[in-house]
Amino acid sequence: MNYNKEKYNRGKLKLVTQPIIYVEGKSNKIFYQQLEEFSDKFIDNGGNCSNIRAKVESQPNSYGIIDHDYEEISHEKLFPINFYSIENISLIYIERN
Fold first, then answer.
1. Could you tell me if residue 15 is left (phi over 0), alpha (psi between -120 and 50 degrees) or otherwise beta?
2. Do residues 85 and 65 lie in contact, with contact meaning Cβ atoms separated by under 8 Å?
3. Residue ranges of the domains in the chain?
4. CB neighbours of 44 closer than 8 A, spacing ≥ 6?
5. pLDDT at 22 over 90
């Protein structure tokens, strides 16, 4: 049996009734799934920022959490974090010697 990614994604959109929150990458998906605030949401890897933007614009019940990168994002369904990447959050807790 061959895996058809597009067919899977179409089926997922029909089955999932709660909001879908797209994030950048597999590690971000694992991170956000651990947060209590998102316990009743469907978190999915949306790819890069451009892919996530396309998904939230074409899917009515979806939102995106994206890295801040170097551009300003002004979109009602995209939420950039205050860091270049989620991994940079850990840097604020490392003591300098």
1. alpha
2. no
3. 17-42+52-93
4. 20, 21, 22, 23, 29
5. yes
Maximal CA-CA distance, the chain: 56
**Range of weakest confidence among 2-11, 30-39, 51-60:** 2-11
pTM: 0.70
As a whole number of angstroms, the distance between CA 2 and CA 79 comes to 35
Give first-to-last CA distance, the chain, whole Å.
56
What would the pLDDT profile of 35-66 be if each residue is shown by its tens digit? Answer: 898 888 889 999 888 899 999 999 888 999 88
User: What percent of the chain is modeled with pLDDT above 70?
Assistant: 75
Written as one string, the DSSP assignment of the chain is ----HHHHHHHHHHH--SPEEEESSHHHHHHHHT-GGGTTSEEEE--SHHHHHHHHHH-TTEEEEE--TTS----TTEEE-SSSSGGGGGGGGSPP-
Q: Which pLDDT does position 71 carry in this prediction? A: 64
